[in-house]
Amino acid sequence: MFGGDPVWPVDLGDLRLWPMESEDGPLLQELLDDLADFRTPFGEPGRADAVSTFVALPQGVDYDAKLLVGVWRNGLLIGALDCIVGYPDPATWSVGLLVVADRHRGNGVGSAVLGWLERTARDRGVRTLRAAIRRQNVDGQLFVEHHGWARDLTAVDAELGTWTKSLSAG
After folding, report:
1. DSSP class of residue 44?
2. CATH of the domain at 106
3. Which pLDDT belongs to residue 117?
4. Are 167 and 92 within 8 A, CB to CB?
5. For the chain, what is the domain count?
6. Where does the record place the N-acetyltransferase domain (predicted)?
7. Low-confidence residues of the chain: pLDDT under 70
8. What's the pLDDT score for residue 59?
């Protein structure tokens, strides 16, 4: 897990954030399998989506830069966050995944996790958060826009749009 780990667990009201370990793979796979709109943000579902989440890293990035966190409520995995710290440069963190189980959406879970990520990054001197969001994932785009993210119009990709948020000291 990334250097300078917060003291785990992180409690956000009735939510608990905890780094995911390989033994959490089946729970993550179940979470991803149960997303009614999985195809919209991620494309075709597969039996190894959780495995991919655990091992996916940009070329040349060490596993110490991977922040893969489960979002738990009452002992149940209800969401997950995957972020690469210090990528593509030391002052940027890149979000690869933020999912919340269907039945837990719309009540602030995603907002709480994203807010925690923003505070944590800002406290570590990060200047920018970025995320690649599939163009078909309008709900994901509206979610990050609602939280002050902006589309990077210089990024050109047929499938993905890049969204960023500048973090100021505070």
Report:
1. S
2. 3.40.630.30
3. 98
4. no
5. 1
6. 15-170
7. 1-6, 38-47, 169-170
8. 94
Region at 146 (left for phi over 0; alpha for psi -120 to 50; beta for the rest): alpha
Residues 38 and 45 sit within 8 Å (Cβ to Cβ):
yes
Strands (E) located in the chain? 10-12, 15-19, 66-73, 76-85, 92-100, 128-134, 150-151, 160-166
Task: Supply the pLDDT for residue 3.
Answer: 55
- The 10 Å CB-count burial string (b at 16+, else e) for 64-86 is ebbbbbbbbeeeebbbbbbbbbb
Domain interval for residue 109? 10-127
Closest by Cα among 94, 28, 29 to 61: 94
Residue 5 lies in a domain: no
Q: How many helices (H) and strands (E) does the chain have?
A: 5, 8
Q: Per the domain annotation, does 72 fall within a domain?
A: yes
Evaluate the CA torsion angle 40, 42, 44, 46 in order and state its sign: negative
Q: Answer yes or no: is 149 within a domain.
A: no
Q: What is the largest CA-CA distance in the chain?
A: 42
In the three-class reduction of DSSP (H, G, I as helix; E, B as strand; rest coil), residue 163 is classed as strand
pLDDT of residue 46: 67
